[in-house]
Design a protein that fits this description.
There is one protein chain. With about 450 residues, the protein is α/β, with parallel strands linked by helices. The strands form five sheets. Strands 5-16-17-18-19 form a five-stranded antiparallel beta sheet, with helices on one face. Strands 9-10-13-14-15 form a five-stranded parallel beta sheet. Strand 1 and strand 2 form a beta hairpin. It is globular and about 65 Å long. The model has no long low-confidence stretch (mean pLDDT about 95). Bound molecules: zinc ion.
């Protein structure tokens, strides 16, 4: 194998310091001042970063890649391309594929397809219950012991609503250091629900989805995980009450982590007023008061991470009336920019905190030890971000196979120009290179 070695000159780190970074044989070899004498010459290609920001590659714990089964919406290859364009070097693939990723065979298939794509790490998430049906526990230890080494389990899309099954799952994963990622949605309170329950759902005549459907499961599960001394991760928080529950749990020393999506940090249920199903998503967009609480919770660390919930759907499942449309939005390519717009440009969060929420913390929660940091001797998963630049979102230019972004025509800050995965420059000046790690 021959890979190109790089010398990144004038790289600005999240803490503001300016350094040079030498990347050799896929690893971050040296970080220091004026490395040009040591690492210049034929063996290293010099990239003048020109004081743009250099960050560890982003890590997404909540991605729907649709393969196997729904390759018309996304494949592991197209999803990997989308991830790389968005600055992600690791994503976690949710289990709601067909067949469902509820066995060693399917999670190993996902891991194999990801290796073949070779653009970023794709870590399969295993289903908690067989077929996501909520009836019987899936083969959690078989998936954990498989070549895919699954550590995160989730029925995402569905809630593990049966408390007995949830208890058994939390007990089971303790033996191998796993975590249950819960999609908190009491199904009996949301049957047929279409959007957030409130003034706007009443006005539009759409069946409401009450905050309590989410909060009641969060409350139950943080208590249960603490009782069992097991690890719980709460997917996509959307309500002020949910943030307060997690804040309380952490104040009690409970080992719970939580995520928020970029879209829930910026959009509200007022978006539904035009009945455009592009804004139909599970869990639903909430009120501006909720958005405020989510932003505050992300800033103060109550919410540990940003996760995209990238959910590709074909056009015909969105170009229809609201009630018939699918739930979900794509997000890998807009995630960083939306977080910069809502959190960094607004002064709520600095870049070091953004790195913690979008790279370091998700890498820790997932156990993805080679990610989340730029460290001498570690694999070079590194991105370059032009923080002074802006870009206009154009869904036709996205690498995802699907077009269901709610941010079409938004002008957003922060442009990901380069992504290095295992030291390979898979994105160069905003273009996918076709480079592949063998
Ligand atoms: Zn979900």
């Amino acid at each position: 194998m021959t890979t190109t070695n790089y010398l990144l000159r004038n790289a600005r780190l999240a803490d503001g310091s300016i350094v040079d970074i030498a990347i050799e044989d896929g690893l971050t070899r040296r970080i220091g001042n004026d490395l040009a004498d040591q690492f210049a010459g034929e063996a290293f290609e010099t990239v003048d970063v020109n004081k743009n920001l250099v960050l560890p590659g982003l890590v997404d714990l909540h991605t729907h890649l649709r393969e196997p089964g729904f390759e018309g919406s996304e494949t592991i290859l197209s999803g990997s391309k989308s991830a790389v364009k968005g600055g992600y070097t690791a994503v976690s693939a949710m289990a709601n594929t067909w067949p469902v990723a509820d066995s060693a065979g399917v999670v190993e298939q996902v891991a194999r397809l990801a290796r073949d794509a070779g653009l970023c790490d794709v870590f399969p998430i295993g289903a908690v219950t067989v077929g996501l049906k909520g009836e019987a526990l899936a083969e959690l230890s078989a998936m954990a012991n498989s070549a895919a080494k699954v550590r995160i389990f989730s029925d995402d899309g569905n809630c593990v609503s049966d408390p007995v099954l949830m208890r058994r799952a939390l007990e089971y994963v303790k033996s191998f250091g796993g975590v249950i990622a819960q999609h908190a949605q009491e199904p009996r309170l949301t049957h047929g629900s279409q959007m957030n329950e409130g003034a706007i759902s009443s006005k539009l005549g759409l069946k409401g989805w009450p905050a309590i459907a989410e909060e009641s499961i969060i409350a139950r599960d943080i208590l249960m995980a603490h009782y069992l001394q097991s690890r719980l991760h709460i997917c996509h928080l959307t309500t002020r009450g949910g943030v307060e529950l997690v804040r309380w749990a952490k104040s009690q020393g409970m080992a719970v982590t939580a995520e928020v999506t970029p879209h829930h940090l910026i959009l509200t249920d007022e978006s539904a007023s035009g009945f455009d199903p592009i804004y139909k998503v599970n869990p639903p967009l909430r009120t501006s008061e909720d958005v405020q609480a989510l932003q505050d919770g992300l800033a103060d660390g109550t919410i540990d991470i940003v996760a995209t919930d990238h959910a590709p759907h074909p056009n015909d499942s969105k170009d229809c009336e609201w009630s018939a449309a699918s739930f979900g939005m794509i997000g890998l390519e807009t995630s960083l920019s939306v977080v910069v717009k809502t959190m960094v440009a607004s002064g709520k969060m600095d870049w070091e905190t953004l790195v913690e929420r979008m790279s370091a913390a998700p890498a820790r929660i997932g156990g993805y030890s080679s990610h989340g940091k730029i460290l001498e001797g570690a694999p070079a998963h590194i991105i370059i971000v032009d923080t002074t630049g802006e870009w206009k979102v154009d869904r036709e230019l996205m690498a995802s196979k699907s077009r269901n972004t709610p941010f079409q025509d938004y002008v957003l800050p922060a442009v990901v120009t380069d992504t290095f995965y295992n030291g390979v420059r898979v994105l160069k000046d905003g273009e996918l290179t076709g480079a592949k790690y063998e």
